[in-house]
Amino acid sequence: MNTHERPTARAHREIAAVLREGDAAVDATAGNGHDTVFLAKLVGAAGKVIAFDVQEQAIASTRERLAAEELLDRVELVHGSHGRIADHAAAGSVGAVMFNLGYLPGADHAVITRTDETLQALEGALGLLRPGGILTVVCYPGHAGGDEESAAVVAWAEKRSAEIFRRLDTLKPAPFLVVVRA
C-alpha cells in the first residue's frame, strides 16, 4: 500500500478495478453517503446499490447526498443493521461490498458498529459476492469498541486469505483496510 494512501482511497481503488456497470453492490455502513455515491456511480443506471445504516441521521444524510448527485434511483436505503445483509440480495449476485466501521462522523461517537453484528454481516456479505467480487473493510482501532472490533475482523479475515493494508507513515492505532476477494 502506498504509505500515504488513506484506507478509504485504497478501498475505492480496489473496488473500481472490479465493479462493473450493471452490477449490484452493497454499502454495509452508509454513514454520510460518500461510499454509497461512489458505488452508485460505478454501477451506472443499470446497476443497484443497497446501503445500510442503523442511524436515521445517516440514512437522511446519504439520501441528501444521493439526491444532489441524481443517483437516488440506483440505491435502496435500508434503515437497519448490516447484520441482515444476506436478506437483501441473492447469493452470488453482488460485485462489491464495502464496510467503513466505527462511528458516524459528526454524530454521537458512542453509537458504533458492533463486533457481533459486523462478523455476522461479513459472513453474509461473502455469500453475496459473485465470482471475482470484492469485499472491503476499513477498520478503526483507537476508539471505544474499535480495538475489539478491528481485532475480530482481522481474525475473521486471516481465515479467508485476505489482504490487510496498513499505512506506515502514521501513528498507531491507525485505520487500516482489509480486502477479501471472491
Automatic annotation (TrEMBL):
GO MF annotations in UniProt: methyltransferase activity
Protein's UniProt keywords contain ATP-binding: no
Database matches in SUPFAM superfamilies: S-adenosyl-L-methionine-dependent methyltransferases
Top-rank taxon: Bacteria
GO BP terms in the entry: methylation
The keyword Transferase appears for this protein: yes
Keywords: Methyltransferase, Transferase
PANTHER family referenced in this protein's UniProt entry, alphabetically: S-ADENOSYL-L-METHIONINE-DEPENDENT METHYLTRANSFERASES SUPERFAMILY PROTEIN (PTHR35276), TRNA (MNM(5)S(2)U34)-METHYLTRANSFERASE, CHLOROPLASTIC (PTHR35276:SF1)
Name of the molecule in the record: Class I SAM-dependent methyltransferase
Source organism of the structure: Luteolibacter flavescens
Lineage, top ranks: Bacteria, Pseudomonadati, Verrucomicrobiota, Verrucomicrobiia, Verrucomicrobiales
